[in-house]
Amino acid sequence: MGAFGAWLFAPVPGLSAAVPASDRGDALPGLPWLSTSGGRITDAAGRAVLLRGFNDDALLEPTMHPAPLDTTDVTLMQASGFDLVRLPIAWSLLEPQRGRFDWSYLELIAQAVDLVNAHGMYVVLDMHSLGWSPVYGGSGAPAWATVGGVPDPVWGPMPSLQRLISPAINVSTAYFWLTSGWQDELIATWRFVAQRFREDSGVAGYDLFNEPHSFPLPPLRFDKDQLFPFYARAVARVGAADPNHLFFLDNDMAGDLPTSVVPLQARNLVYAPHMYTGALIPPDFDGDTHNLDAHVEELAREGASVPAALWFGEFSINIDHRFAAQWINAILADFDAHGAGWAWWQWRETSGWGVRSADGRSLDMALLRLLARPYVAFAPAGVSAQLDAPHTSLTVQVAARHGAGAIEVTWPGYVLGEPHARAGCGAPVAWDAAAARVVIDVPASTACVVTVSA
Fold it and tell me: pTM score, two decimals?
């Protein structure tokens, strides 16, 4: 037992991934290129960028529950003050036959990106995996990337934690992580995608693998021996095809066990953990926020140890949960404390987790009101903000030695109505209703307090 423990916790050397210098072209209007600097996502002017929005699984396999993403969806998102869609995409549909990529599916992805970008919002492309493959009723790997002849007893529907007990799912998952062949194919698929979007500033970046988990491999060692070495190879090889975008790295989703982070030196890394403590991961949330606060702190430390900017790629709770409002308020306060953006799971879903129903006929305003809050989307150095308890008034403080560039406050006009803005220093303040933005231009060497309220 002592030898096993020593092996399990033994440290491994840090990793690095060489990514060439960016060769970005001109950005689309309103969508600056994004990078990372000082543990934050930033734009070319050095402003800190906060990305908030939703997941939408419209492009996943029919084995899941996709609903079309339409103009009404993105119009509502933008009008409610959001600036991002995390868009899950399917390896099974990108590479249905080994070594042969599907250009028609890639074009569907491009059309969805264009739709979101046309409404001033970024896209994170997420290579989704849940239950390993549609062969097993889930999402992710194509049929050729499954191990045949292994029993697949169905103890629960997808998505379901009970499917983790399936021998077929576990054997295929382990084969992927323990060998290089399928990993190389997935990375080649990412290169196929990246070459299409390398000049598109409206794509924030690439989420390399959704919710990797150690099971059936041992936790902690999985992170050290499989997960982070895969991340290093993927960043280097995809970065060689596209050096212009961010790379989002998910945590090891083995319940709430910590991820054993292996330091990874590379450009433009974002640590993008998922947060389901008390919602999907027991114990069930009972109003006590201790576990939530502690786990967000733990994930923030993991992100700093990569080192990478911090952004939460998924979180949510069923709005019908009796403590849903307390859970959401606590989580968002924790995210704010770390200056971290997020994406709710998800926008369209008829199950208590979605804002708009799958058929598009209803909108859950109670949930939307909880999520739609004013925030500083683009902040030069020396700018901080404080949101009041009702989440209807934002106080922006600007130090005299602030950085250059306009301050952009995203305002949820659809929920709160037109804002009222007042700058104590007399700085120009403009409300752009179409973009749902309040733009504040504080002169250089001027301290200022700006209040934006309903």
Answer: 0.97
